[in-house]
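Notes from hallway chat w/ T.B., transcribed later so I don't forget. T.B. wanted the structure written out for a chain they're using in a teaching module, and asked if we could keep both sequence and structure tokens in one place. Agreed to drop them here.
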Amino acid sequence: MTFLTRVLLAASLFVAAAAASAQPVRVDNAEAELVAATDAVVPGQPLSVGLLIRHDPHWHTYWRVPGDSGLPTTIAWQLPAGFAAGPLEWPVPKRLPIGPLMNFGYEGELLLPVQVSVPGDVAPGQTVQLKARADWLICKEVCIPGGADLQLALPVRAAAAPSSFAPLFDSARAQVPRPAKLDAASVTIDGARLRLAFRPAAPVTKLEFFPLEESRIEPAAAQALRAEDGGAALYLAAVQPVAAEFTRLRGVLVANGGPGRRPPLPARHRRAAAPRR
């Protein structure tokens, strides 16, 4: 291989790697950029892109339901005609205690994947420009609203190869909660106490619940796991007063530190016994 050939090969590899991401944008205590799981757009095939946020140490942004305080990260897309972006795919968050409050969010490196549908008539040989406005709230001892206008240019080809960001997408999506059906599951609301009972398929030593709706449980209250009736029961503190329309508990269960699950859980209100005469 000649020196010129090696130089051209190195240049082509650099261009292919650079095409899957744009220049990161630095905003206060974080860097943000749009990245793709592949090095090209393929006509008619879904494209995995994502918002990549690198937080400075000890700073965090928020999950889709932030907890006692905070705001979720949002993204608004500007896409070429025929392209359409799906919702953000949220990995399981961390519990982030701040004084007496409990928030749900992320520290370190965070990728929020999005699947973009690609029209079949986009022509190979052209370059596609994906643009988005991302907004977030980043906090440590103080909170700072942040945001950036981001863009990503990708070539259109008949086939695509994984980009250097592909492992990040695999890791993030492995932590995105999946729907699940729990055996013998029930939710009972008894005053200020909410009891989530089910029969686990495997032993459970640690269980965390993250609500998918606000004003259902108290985020900062302790969550107590107990073995009961041949199964498991997780006790949560219900927000007072309990809304009459609270008939289903939507949330994410994380067992033994593993990936989250989103089971459908009808909620039953336990009425107080009538006074004896």
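Follow-up for T.B.: Residues 3-19 form the longest helix (17 residues). Might be a good example for the class.
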